[in-house]
Amino acid sequence: VTVPSCIAPSGGSAAVNISFLTADLSWTSGGANSEIVVQLEDETTPSVAPNTGTNVAGSTYQASGLFADTLYEFYVRTECVDGVEYSAWAGPFAFNTFLPASCTTVIYPEDGATGVPAGTSATPVPLTFAWDEVLDAVSYNLYYGTSATGSATILLSNYTTTTATINITGYNALFYWKIVPIGPGGAAVGCTDWTFTTGSDPALANDTFDYQAIAVYPNPATN
Question: Using CB atoms within 10 A of its CB, is residue 184 exposed (0-12), middle (13-18) or buried (19+)?
């Protein structure tokens, strides 16, 4: 086995700051000094000529002046002898500056809705949830919760549509739900929990009673 005299870097990664359009790039260095080239995605491999890229001491570099919603890549090589001996280029290591998706607004059921139809585990009632489409969102995570959880923290499923039909069980119950759109730049943040309360058992929603047919125990009784 012939060990190269100048070992190429490996494992490039990027942490993008969307707000300031910068990216903190890092890699596993093959030596003390490196040279890096940041470019648009799918451009040609950088030249092997000396001083083609930016000289970097160590194995980190902050790329700045980036454009939003853009695909980038970077190449990096070890500079073993300044301006003379270099490793092969490692890369491309891809990253992007896509903005995270924004939150959606509820269509149905409305936030704070009451009397939403429900059923039992034996006879559940389907409820169709619906929400606005979000520009650039590719899918939507639906979270739910109950009064026991106090918020919508349980991931039910991911949907590529803007509707989802779910079986609802439990009368007079408080439910939480939330839609988190997912885009190329990641999941939306800060999306609001909505609530709705299911209605009463329809079997008990009787407008008239034959009071003479009602037996009360104990007798006498109050309330």
Answer: middle
| Beta bridge partner(s), residue 145 | 176
Beta bridge partners of 100: none
Token pair of 65 as six digits: 């002046």
> What is the per-residue DSSP string for 176-201?
EEEEEEEETTEE--SPPPEEEEE---
Please provide residue 3's backbone torsions phi and psi, each rounded to the nearest 5 degrees: -85, 125
Rounded CA-CA distance 68/51 in Å is: 28
Question: What is this structure's pTM?
Answer: 0.61
Pairing of strands 154-159, 139-146: antiparallel
> What pLDDT, on a 0 to 100 scale, did the predictor assign at position 56?
93
Tokens of 121: 């585990």
Residues of the chain with pLDDT > 70, as a percent, come to: 96
DSSP symbol at 211: G
Phi (first) and psi of residue 178, to 5 degrees: -155, 140
Per-state percent for the chain, helix, strand, coil, to nearest 5: 5, 45, 50
Q: CA–CA separation, 17 vs 99, rounded Å?
A: 10
Residue 48 amino acid letter:
V
